[in-house]
Design goal:
The chain has a single domain (about 5-90), classed as Arc Repressor Mutant, subunit A, CATH 1.10.10. It is about 40% helix and about 5% strand. The chain is built from 4 helices and 2 strands. The protein has a two-stranded parallel sheet with strand order 1-2. The longest helix is centred in the N-terminal third of the chain and has 13 residues, at about 5-15. The protein is globular, with a radius of gyration of 13 Å.
């Protein structure tokens, strides 16, 4: 992945406000050429100890992606007031931007 594209993704990620969520596709659309998969890859490659809100990024169906950090993601979102419904979806009213 090009350095410029990764920087765009991480800059957008840093802008997601607490208590809100966005999708991999939404972040991709805000860049100059990323795809949702590239966004997911950039998040997987975040270095240990970073402070970026990776947990605020969800799938287009407003669910958590299936990954090893999903339990932590759910807990961190809940701590910010993002509670998933019975089908595991985030409220549409909390989508950003």
């Amino acid at each position: 992945m090009k350095r410029e594209l990764r920087e765009q993704i991480l800059t957008i990620l840093a802008e997601i406000p607490p208590g809100r969520v966005t999708t991999y596709g939404c972040i991709a659309a805000m860049t100059e050429g990323a795809t949702p998969r590239l966004v997911a890859r950039a998040l997987r490659e975040l270095p240990a100890g970073h402070d970026l809100p990776w947990f605020r990024v969800i799938t287009a169906s407003r669910k958590l992606a299936d990954h090893p950090g999903a339990a932590e993601q759910r807990a961190r979102l809940a701590a910010e007031g993002v509670v998933l419904d019975a089908r595991g979806r985030a409220p549409a009213s909390l989508m950003w931007p």
